[in-house]
Hints:
This protein is 32% helix and 28% strand.
Amino acid sequence: MFEKLVRNKYSMLLLAIYIVALYVILNKAIVPFVFKTLEADFFTGDPSKSGQVTEVHDNRTAMALLQCNRYVRERFDDKADLTFENKDYHSWDIGFGRFLVKSSVDVTEPGEAMVRKNYVCEIKHTGGDLADQDNWKLTGLALNDVKQP
Protein backbone atom coordinates (compact mmCIF):
# COMPACT_ATOMS: atom_id res chain seq x y z
CA MET A 1 0.00 0.00 0.00
CA PHE A 2 2.86 2.35 0.81
CA GLU A 3 4.30 1.71 -2.65
CA LYS A 4 1.11 3.03 -4.29
CA LEU A 5 1.34 6.21 -2.22
CA VAL A 6 4.97 6.78 -3.15
CA ARG A 7 5.03 6.41 -6.92
CA ASN A 8 7.75 8.97 -7.42
CA LYS A 9 10.98 9.00 -5.47
CA TYR A 10 10.46 12.72 -4.75
CA SER A 11 6.88 12.40 -3.44
CA MET A 12 7.82 12.28 0.23
CA LEU A 13 10.31 15.12 -0.18
CA LEU A 14 7.69 17.29 -1.92
CA LEU A 15 5.15 16.45 0.78
CA ALA A 16 7.59 17.54 3.48
CA ILE A 17 8.38 20.77 1.58
CA TYR A 18 4.65 21.54 1.22
CA ILE A 19 4.03 20.98 4.92
CA VAL A 20 6.95 23.22 5.91
CA ALA A 21 5.83 25.90 3.42
CA LEU A 22 2.28 25.87 4.79
CA TYR A 23 3.60 26.14 8.34
CA VAL A 24 5.80 29.12 7.42
CA ILE A 25 2.99 30.89 5.53
CA LEU A 26 0.63 30.35 8.45
CA ASN A 27 3.05 31.73 11.05
CA LYS A 28 4.64 34.52 9.01
CA ALA A 29 1.64 35.83 7.06
CA ILE A 30 -1.79 34.64 8.15
CA VAL A 31 -1.47 34.79 11.95
CA PRO A 32 0.16 38.27 11.97
CA PHE A 33 -2.55 39.54 9.61
CA VAL A 34 -5.31 38.23 11.91
CA PHE A 35 -3.69 39.79 14.99
CA LYS A 36 -3.21 43.12 13.19
CA THR A 37 -6.85 43.08 12.13
CA LEU A 38 -8.04 42.35 15.67
CA GLU A 39 -5.99 45.27 17.03
CA ALA A 40 -7.79 47.73 14.72
CA ASP A 41 -9.96 50.51 16.20
CA PHE A 42 -13.05 48.68 15.01
CA PHE A 43 -12.56 45.89 17.57
CA THR A 44 -11.06 47.80 20.47
CA GLY A 45 -12.19 50.52 22.76
CA ASP A 46 -13.24 51.44 26.25
CA PRO A 47 -15.78 48.86 27.51
CA SER A 48 -17.66 51.66 29.28
CA LYS A 49 -18.47 53.03 25.82
CA SER A 50 -19.95 49.81 24.54
CA GLY A 51 -23.07 50.13 22.43
CA GLN A 52 -26.70 49.27 22.93
CA VAL A 53 -28.93 46.96 20.97
CA THR A 54 -31.94 49.30 20.96
CA GLU A 55 -32.41 52.68 19.37
CA VAL A 56 -30.97 55.53 21.45
CA HIS A 57 -31.79 59.25 21.66
CA ASP A 58 -29.42 61.14 23.95
CA ASN A 59 -27.02 64.07 23.71
CA ARG A 60 -24.33 61.93 22.05
CA THR A 61 -26.64 60.66 19.30
CA ALA A 62 -28.04 64.18 18.85
CA MET A 63 -24.49 65.44 18.25
CA ALA A 64 -23.89 62.52 15.88
CA LEU A 65 -27.00 63.62 13.95
CA LEU A 66 -25.69 67.19 13.69
CA GLN A 67 -22.31 65.97 12.46
CA CYS A 68 -23.98 63.68 9.91
CA ASN A 69 -26.06 66.65 8.72
CA ARG A 70 -22.81 68.55 8.19
CA TYR A 71 -21.36 65.72 6.10
CA VAL A 72 -24.59 65.49 4.06
CA ARG A 73 -24.47 69.26 3.44
CA GLU A 74 -20.94 68.85 2.01
CA ARG A 75 -22.34 66.55 -0.69
CA PHE A 76 -24.48 69.32 -2.20
CA ASP A 77 -23.83 72.60 -3.98
CA ASP A 78 -23.79 75.74 -1.82
CA LYS A 79 -26.81 77.07 -3.74
CA ALA A 80 -28.99 74.12 -2.76
CA ASP A 81 -31.47 74.68 0.07
CA LEU A 82 -31.38 71.79 2.55
CA THR A 83 -33.95 71.22 5.29
CA PHE A 84 -32.98 68.47 7.70
CA GLU A 85 -35.41 66.32 9.67
CA ASN A 86 -34.02 66.75 13.18
CA LYS A 87 -36.98 65.40 15.15
CA ASP A 88 -37.98 62.20 13.37
CA TYR A 89 -34.69 60.34 13.10
CA HIS A 90 -33.35 56.98 14.20
CA SER A 91 -30.00 56.58 15.89
CA TRP A 92 -28.02 53.78 17.44
CA ASP A 93 -24.92 53.84 19.61
CA ILE A 94 -23.08 50.84 18.17
CA GLY A 95 -20.23 51.04 20.64
CA PHE A 96 -16.76 52.47 21.13
CA GLY A 97 -17.76 55.95 19.97
CA ARG A 98 -19.47 54.76 16.79
CA PHE A 99 -22.98 55.84 15.87
CA LEU A 100 -25.46 54.94 13.15
CA VAL A 101 -27.93 57.66 12.19
CA LYS A 102 -30.89 57.31 9.80
CA SER A 103 -32.74 60.48 8.81
CA SER A 104 -33.91 62.51 5.83
CA VAL A 105 -33.27 65.84 4.16
CA ASP A 106 -35.39 67.91 1.79
CA VAL A 107 -33.22 69.23 -1.04
CA THR A 108 -34.28 72.12 -3.26
CA GLU A 109 -31.88 72.92 -6.08
CA PRO A 110 -32.33 76.34 -7.76
CA GLY A 111 -35.04 76.06 -10.42
CA GLU A 112 -35.97 72.48 -9.49
CA ALA A 113 -38.64 70.84 -7.36
CA MET A 114 -37.94 69.72 -3.82
CA VAL A 115 -36.64 66.16 -3.49
CA ARG A 116 -36.62 64.23 -0.23
CA LYS A 117 -33.57 62.07 0.36
CA ASN A 118 -33.13 59.50 3.08
CA TYR A 119 -29.66 58.98 4.40
CA VAL A 120 -27.82 56.56 6.63
CA CYS A 121 -24.64 57.80 8.23
CA GLU A 122 -22.04 55.89 10.20
CA ILE A 123 -19.85 58.20 12.23
CA LYS A 124 -17.19 57.79 14.92
CA HIS A 125 -16.42 60.13 17.79
CA THR A 126 -12.64 60.04 18.18
CA GLY A 127 -12.61 61.63 21.64
CA GLY A 128 -12.73 65.09 23.13
CA ASP A 129 -15.56 67.60 22.98
CA LEU A 130 -18.71 66.32 21.24
CA ALA A 131 -19.37 69.74 19.69
CA ASP A 132 -15.95 69.96 18.01
CA GLN A 133 -16.23 68.91 14.36
CA ASP A 134 -12.61 67.78 14.30
CA ASN A 135 -13.44 65.06 16.84
CA TRP A 136 -15.73 63.22 14.43
CA LYS A 137 -14.83 60.92 11.55
CA LEU A 138 -17.27 59.86 8.84
CA THR A 139 -17.00 56.14 8.16
CA GLY A 140 -19.99 55.71 5.84
CA LEU A 141 -22.76 57.74 4.19
CA ALA A 142 -25.52 56.62 1.83
CA LEU A 143 -28.07 59.00 0.26
CA ASN A 144 -31.19 57.68 -1.50
CA ASP A 145 -34.10 59.46 -3.18
CA VAL A 146 -37.51 58.80 -1.66
CA LYS A 147 -39.87 57.43 -4.28
CA GLN A 148 -42.95 59.57 -4.72
CA PRO A 149 -46.30 57.69 -4.92
